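Let's practice the habit of predicting before peeking. Look at the sequence and jot down your guess about where helices and strands might fall. Then scroll down.
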Amino acid sequence: MEGTEVTVENVCEVGPETIALELATPEGFDALPGQFVVLRTELDGEEITRYYTISSPTVEETFELTVGIDPDGDLSPWLADLEGGETVHVDGPHGQSTYEGAGDVVAVAGGPGVGPAVAIAEAAHQAGHEAAVIYQDDEPAHRDRLESLEAAGADVLFLADGDDASLADAIKTYHENGQVYVFGFADFVRTVADAIDDADGDADEALIENFG
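Done guessing? Here is the structure:
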């Protein structure tokens, strides 16, 4: 099997049908917030491959992946049942939508995009910069981390799924407040890009990760 074998250190629930998968950091793994890995394992004799974006602000000893659970999925229910000590294989890190610790950030997330968004916001805060998170989801994940960010001075907006008017208003208010990052499925990131342009910004300057 391709990739580096890593140990699952912990699995915990971080929202409705959502888990955080904590993995031991392999030697030489130097990832930045916003990057993703390819996760592989073998189930019933078949290799299963999925892509997950890193949701921890650092990767020094362990790193975290946020996984939405599809009850009918091939991999996520299995991951949710892990107790720690098991192994999986990872390739990476990959991706160019990274935060390197310089400057203020505006992280815009739809659904599973909250993982990298909260990681980037936390990394910016830890580096002494301002952070805003705009998060659209009816059943938010990582609420504890987001509320901690808010208590520390970050702006955190929770928006209802499908409330594109409020999303556009939030983009208009915050798009000039720092480097804009956008994480989510195709319809969501298109909506955000259009809102940036409608607010007289430039969507081409945003770092956008389309989950397909």
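How did you do? DSSP finds five helices and eleven strands in the chain.
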